[in-house]
Amino acid sequence: MPTLYESYSQLIARFGGQQKTAEALGCTQPSVSAWVQGKANMSATLALKAERITNGEFKAVDLCPALALLETTD
Q1: What pTM, to 2 d.p., does this model score?
Q2: Class assignment of domain 4-70?
Q3: CA 67: distance to chain centroid?
Q4: Record's InterPro entries (predicted)?
């Protein structure tokens, strides 16, 4: 399982840069930069959007720590 930083970096690479990632997700480039720098985490809404527009290539739970907390282990 990739680290949060790795997941963000791979997502950015998938879209071709921070600005293109921001445009695809409907947020700002400084927000994307803050994720990579560890200054902020992606919101659940954007993580779910990223999962949808990448057809599941990126999982929302791997992009948003808050969503990962909702997962249960049975």
Answers
A1: 0.90
A2: mainly alpha
A3: 11
A4: Lambda_DNA-bd_dom_sf, YdaS_toxin-like
